[in-house]
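Entry 12.
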Amino acid sequence: MSTRFIYGFHAVSSRIRQRATSVVEVYIDSSRKDARARDLAKLAESMQVRVVQVEAGRLDGMAGGGRHQGAAAKVEMVELATSVDDVLDQVSGPPLVLVLDGITDPHNLGACLRTADAAGVHAVIAPKDRAVGLNATVIKVASGAADTVPYITVTNLARSLRELKERDIWIVGAAGEAETAHFAPGLNRAVAWVLGAEGEGLRRLTRETCDELRRIPMAGGIESLNVSVATGVCLFEAVRQRELG
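Predicted 3D structure (tokens):
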């Protein structure tokens, strides 16, 4: 099975807790003697994962120039579903889907994946063009969520949204000019929230394909939230309505 490196304390510890058997080795900066490094080593050893003390320069190479914080791991590639149908065919209740249109910043995508995992999202869908993809920075920021939430790229986002409609999934786009607030009733069903990049918003065809548009009420002077923050607001409103029935 192919392997890759992940880095950062959150990403490494999360992978150990979720899939310890997929972690080949954990590497910790030998100059770090602090509690965080000791805790990671203890966690790895408790799960029978080999820990190797290395120089910071070696970690720099593993992280490809990314900010590794003094920790990395060699892990086996986790195989998640690669198509929307593969995911939704396995969902027993009403699906909750996140669609990201035009997110090119890896930190935003990583944060969105982390939020999606916390909200119980079944899949994240994004276009192949104008999207950052799962690079090392995304994986680090996602803190393990890149290995738990299927991230599915599609060639035609509007067509994929229409296919979701055929499965009776209600498509809700986030747009600042919408009349309906994000917390209006109607989210306690199969829902796909669609969010665009901060500032640019949804592309025209994406917007036109949505069943409805909703806005997050903004009381201050700024016009929009960071997309990862908006994702949390929208997804957890759907979670709240589902909990209330």
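Annotation: The first helix runs from residue 9 to 19. The radius of gyration is 19 Å.
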